[in-house]
Amino acid sequence: REDVVVNGDDRENILKNAPERKDGAFVVPKTFEE
């Protein structure tokens, strides 16, 4: 199959179900400690 380009500019719709977000991006919890 060929890849299909879709509109990814709908940031609010994409992030509306994110458990946590900051500055328009998903917040990912740390998986290890330093």
UniProtKB/TrEMBL annotation:
MF GO annotations: transferase activity
One Pfam family matching this protein: GatC
Record's keyword terms, sorted: Transferase
GO BP: any one term: regulation of translational fidelity
Transferase is among the record's keywords: yes
Name this polypeptide is given: Glutamyl-tRNA(Gln) and/or aspartyl-tRNA(Asn) amidotransferase, C subunit
